[in-house]
C-alpha cells in the first residue's frame, strides 16, 4: 500500500527534525557536556498524571502500523501484549531510582588515535547492518537517527576520524 504524499512529507519533516535535534545535542555534548547534563537534572519535576488505559484495539492498530510501515514483527508482538506505561508519579520515579541508582559519571581516559581511525564508508556500512528500529545501547538512539544524521557531510566528517 503506497504512502500518501502527506504522510511522506510528515515523515520527511520528522526525520529532519530528529536529525537537527540529534546534531544539536551532539554538538552541545562535544562543546559543553557538563551544562547539558546539568540541564537534565534541573528539568522541572513531574506532576502526577492520570494513567492512560490501553485497549486491545489500540494495541492491534499499533501492531499493524509497526508491521506495515517498518516491518518490525517482534515489536508488533510486544505491542499486542502491552499493558501501557507506568503512571507518571513520584512513586514510579522512586521505583525507577531504586532499580537504577545514580552513579558518578565515567571519566574519559586517553585513547590512542589509531584505535579511532574509521572512514565514512565503514560507518555507513556498519549502520546499515542493524535491524530497523533497534538501538545500540541504553540511550535509545535508533540506527535511523544516525543514518539521518549521516546525510549531513558535516556530521559524517565529525563522526569519523
Mean pLDDT: 80
So what's the overall shape? globular
β-sheet strand percentage: under 5%
Helix content: 55-70%
Number of contiguous helices: 7
According to DSSP, the number of beta strands is 0
Query: Which value, in Å, is the CA radius of gyration?
Result: 19 Å
Q: What is the straight-line distance between the termini?
A: 41 Å
Listing every helix as H and every strand as E from the N terminus to the C terminus, the arrangement reads HHHHHHH
Class per helix and strand makeup: mainly alpha
Contiguous uncertain segments of 5+ residues: none
Q: Biggest β-sheet: count, sense, barrel? A: none
Description:
It is built from 7 helices and no strands. The chain has helices at residues 5-41, 56-70, 73-80, 90-99, 120-127, 143-149, 153-159. The longest helix is centred in the N-terminal third of the chain and has 37 residues, at 5-41. The radius of gyration is 19 Å and the shape is globular. The model has no long low-confidence stretch (mean pLDDT 80). The termini are far apart.
Summarize this structure briefly.
Helix content is 57%, strand content 0%. It is mainly α and 161 residues long.
Protein topology:
Blueprint: H1 5-41, H2 56-70, H3 73-80, H4 90-99, H5 120-127, H6 143-149, H7 153-159
Helix pairs in contact: 1-6, 2-3
Question: Which terms summarize this structure?
Answer:
161 residues, mainly alpha
